[in-house]
Amino acid sequence: MKNKVTIIGAGMVGSTTAFGLVAANFTEEIAIIDINNKLLKAQVMDLQQSVPFWGYTHIKEGNYKDVKDSKVVIITCGSAQKEGETRIDLLSKNAKIVKEIMPKIFSENPSAIVIIVTNPVDILTNIAIKMFPKKEQQIFGSGTTLDTARLRFLLGEKMSVNPKSVHAYIVGEHGDSELVLWSTATVGSTALDLFYKLSQKEKQIIFEKAKNSAYAIIAGKQSTYYAIAAALVKLTKSVLFDKKTVYTVSHTADGRFGIHNISLSLPAVIGAKGVIKEPHLKITADEKRLLRQSAAVLNKAEKSLLL
Length: 307
Ligand code: NAD
Prior knowledge:
Structural class: alpha/beta
Number of helices: 11
Number of domains: 2
Low-confidence stretches: none
CATH architecture of the largest domain: Alpha-Beta Complex
CATH topology of the largest domain: L-2-Hydroxyisocaproate Dehydrogenase, Chain A, domain 2
Oligomer: single chain
Order of helices and strands: EHEHHEEHEHEHEEEEEHHHHEEEH
Radius of gyration: 19 Å
CATH class of the largest domain: Alpha Beta
CATH superfamily of the largest domain: Lactate dehydrogenase/glycoside hydrolase, family 4, C-terminal
Bound molecules: nicotinamide-adenine-dinucleotide
């Protein structure tokens, strides 16, 4: 099977992800689906005309038949946050969309790997996994992959070190209740606290800046798309080429840390089969408490859908 990706949603995130994939030049075909036909046509035409500068990727206006021979399907369709809205505010609108499209995906291609990006990403991932529990390994949300990148960038700037060498994770909800696992953070193989002395206050400022980036970006330009698109290019690559790279994706917690029936982000190894390993984590009692609190926020929001 060729390296084909279907992206559902031709908005800011979907089209920027397609652009990132074209520039990265490892995907043979990209099909894009959107209910807004005029937007879809325009995005595909613009993307196609970038192809000669990067290499060769076939890009087309797609439909669900394209999922049949796609290894990866990326869901970016639905409502985005507006200024003053939280991700959880989008829940009922976007849950309806995800419930509609998940069966269409797996009826076309039972082995597709599905990456959910639409917010609130954790709850939508959980809904999708509950609809197809046997395909749990194949479904994950981009989760805090983006938030972790934001944290690594900010720490790298502060410590004057390449963010690729900063191994510090944001876990939990992709949203207001997320947390940093400071106890596991390293620079290279050196504990972060040994590498650079950051006060508690400095850590808190950096974390708040990472956590609240979406609000700041949305206030300035309505939506966030470059960094999430970069995250999606990397997640797609890890699946297409079985790279087995660790990312903080959203997935069922599966009883870890006493958390059940909810999806949230923890580090996981991503490869051709989707989520292939969820490594053991040694974290502090306080981090466990914050993680459970984050799970409770998600649980409450998901339950509100049923009311
Ligand atoms: P956007 O409004 O630019 O694009 C959404 C697109 O979805 C629109 O073009 C719309 O026509 C289309 N759409 C709506 N319903 C559809 C359906 N049933 N089938 C096919 N297409 C449909 O929004 P955006 O800025 O691209 O954001 C998309 C989603 O991604 C939002 O929910 C946003 O909150 C989320 N997001 C997530 C992250 C993350 O880290 N998880 C980061 C950024 C944005």
